[in-house]
Automatic annotation (TrEMBL):
Protein name according to UniProt: Helicase DnaB
GO molecular function, one term: ATP binding
Any one of the GO BP annotations: DNA replication
Entry keywords, A to Z: ATP-binding, Helicase, Hydrolase, Nucleotide-binding
Source lineage: Bacteria, Bacillati, Actinomycetota, Actinomycetes, Propionibacteriales
Organism of this sequence: Nocardioides currus
Length: 332
């Protein structure tokens, strides 16, 4: 019988077996952002395509890295497909984020300091422990990262060579080595190599369908960052799911669509003028809108404070209390 064909009774039995076996992998991956997990009905699900889009520089890579770190820390493998940044750059952000999370102080080991240690431009000597050990929390952060680092696989990808098949091959490799499928992160979807004769719309359609298939085949979640179309980058526009490049097919294939916006750009004008908060602090927050959500409520708005100098968002977050608007209230 086709292994993809199952009687509902088999499904119930499978769930029951899973519940009784503490070793069996759960089908939910927590994101590390408790409010987002709540909105998603517990976390990211096996077999889903989860898109992350947003304004330029608003922290898409940072957010995705944080979800990757959460999974690795929980002992579950991650495949990070990076078209944008070198593996070392990603790790620098993660070491800094780890230090910040462990520190009660508002300032902590910054990405810049970690980079100086990695690149030996810090006027210190020795290897990583000696160089990071000069900073408060440096050794603890390095120890923590070293502990979960075997779970994180980084694929340095290029738009000329990294096809869906290459990504599937990397997923197979991780599965073979770890015995369980990885959480997959793609940074970013429109970079995946496709035959040149296809239009961009066709390329994006096939990539989205292919990523969804991989999630189903390997029974893992796929998180893909999406680039914005020109309209979504226009000043005066709030990016929406429809502004993802190749959007019709993307939104159709996706199970979850998350959009990051700068709070100062999307909060209604009266809050800026009369609210207890002000523009200066609103810009320190990113609003995440849950524009599509197959397993829960759609339209949820949660916000996270940025700490980009330490390569992270503060994970606790809060629900957005203010009214948000589609048009930016001011442009610079
Ligand atoms: N060392 C640092 N200190 C402070 N801010 C930084 C540092 N490195 C990067 N940033 C800022 O952090 C922000 C988030 O970067 P990130 O790469 O996560 O955003 P993104 O939305 O993925 O960006 P893009 O649209 O360029 O792909 C950017 O605005 C970037 O300028």
């Amino acid at each position: 019988m086709d292994p993809k064909l199952s009687a509902a009774s088999d499904v119930l039995e499978r769930v029951d077996r899973r519940l009784l076996d503490p070793e069996a992998a759960a089908d939910l991956w927590q994101t590390g952002f408790p409010l987002l997990d709540e909105e998603l009905g517990g976390g990211l699900r096996a077999g889903t395509l989860n898109l992350l889009a947003g304004a330029q520089g608003e922290g898409k890579t940072t957010f995705a890295l944080q979800m990757a770190r959460q999974s690795a820390r929980a002992g579950r493998p991650v495949l990070f497909v990076s078209f944008e940044l070198e593996a070392e750059t990603l790790l620098q952000k993660m070491v800094s984020a780890e230090a910040a999370e462990r520190s009660a102080r508002p300032t902590s080991l910054t990405v810049r300091e970690v980079r100086a240690a990695f690149e030996a431009t810090d006027a210190a000597g020795g290897g990583l422990p000696e160089r990071l050990g000069r900073h408060a929390g440096g050794i603890d952060a390095l120890t923590a990262v070293t502990h979960w680092a075997p779970q994180l696989y980084i694929h340095r990808s290029t738009s000329t060579h990294t096809t869906l098949d290459v990504i599937a091959g990397a997923m197979k490799d991780v599965l073979a080595e770890q015995g369980v499928p990885p959480l997959v992160v793609i940074d970013y979807l429109q970079k995946i190599s496709m035959p040149d004769h296809l239009s961009e719309e066709e390329q994006v359609t096939r990539v989205a369908a292919g990523l969804k298939d991989l999630g189903i085949e390997f029974q893992c979640p796929v998180i893909a960052i999406s680039a914005s179309d020109r309209a979504g980058l226009e000043p005066g526009t709030r990016m929406r799911a429809r502004n993802m490049r190749g959007s019709t097919s993307l939104a159709y294939e996706a199970d979850v669509v998350l959009i990051l916006s700068n709070k100062a750009d999307v909060v209604a004008r009266h809050h800026l003028m009369y609210g207890s908060n002000n523009g200066g602090t609103y810009k320190d927050w990113s609003v995440m809108t849950i524009e599509k959500n197959r397993s829960g409520r759609t339209g949820g708005e949660v916000e996270f404070r940025k700490q980009f100098e330490c390569g992270r968002f503060i994970a606790e977050g809060q629900f957005v209390a203010e009214k948000l608007v589609d048009e930016r209230v001011y442009t610079e």
